[in-house]
Amino acid sequence: MAQESYEQPLVRRSARIAKQAVPPTTASTTDTNTPSPTNRIATLPPAASLTANATGFSKRDITLLQRKQRLLQQQSQSQFQSTSSLTTAQQTALAATLVFAQHEAGTAFCISREGLLLTCAHCVAETVEESRTVKDKEIYLLFAGGRVVAARCVAWDGVRDLALLQITASQPSPPPLSTTTSITGTITSDSEFVFPYVDIAPAAPAASTRVFCIGHPGSEDLESSTARATNYDVLHVSGGRYYGVADGANVHDNSEIGALMHDCWTYWGHSGAAVCLARSGGVVGVHSSWDEGTGMRRGVAWEAIVGFLRERGVVLDL
Predict the structure, then answer these.
(1) pTM higher than the cut 0.90
(2) d(CA 165, CA 242)
């Protein structure tokens, strides 16, 4: 599996939410009560049994979900189960990574065993008005091992460009394919699910620290003048370095472009992917965009992540 690829086309996210550098306000955020970890999580049927009425998906979207599940399961068996291809930190982060079931919708990652997910706000909604309608709808995602879950948006911050989701339903986790990884997660009883997760790093790293990013590159080549497939894997692991926060940037305003700088390879669909420390796997950023002038990848910085989560009452063990 490719780890570094700097000749790949450089792209930025397709939409912005706000244009002015302002701190988060109630006008740019949408919150609901974050579900208690003791809430029961419903059991989803196999992907083949999911219907348009149950999911709100079109027949095409259901077919896409089933295809993504099949490809993730194949990739898990052929690549991710190989201990020689991934470090322990990468295996842990990969197990906690999810792809949106919808077409080219982005990436997310799990930050708690109870199923709290973090992603970019623009992966969920482009405007405050849209975020208010989305919070009452189920969003479908798939873990790296192919496990389908449904989640609801419980917090959305368009200025920080972060959204918090809570898993509300899940397929039972299949038995792990290997004892060396935990890509499939575990299930403790018929109704109590435990999900693989990644920790938030205890502090922002120094410049030039090695990092990696795991994201969901789009299947369409958006740099080509004619429609053609990219043939990328559903999930891609890339390595690089963290370069700190851009000069003059407000770490809490990522509405125009992410304040964090890194050079891991990314593509359309990587928005919402965790940027993790190479050694420990701790999350130090969320990939969101790129700088057209320099080609530098950009994201939401550690400070904004911690501020966003603490404001929503998420307990962090830093």
Answers:
(1) no
(2) 26
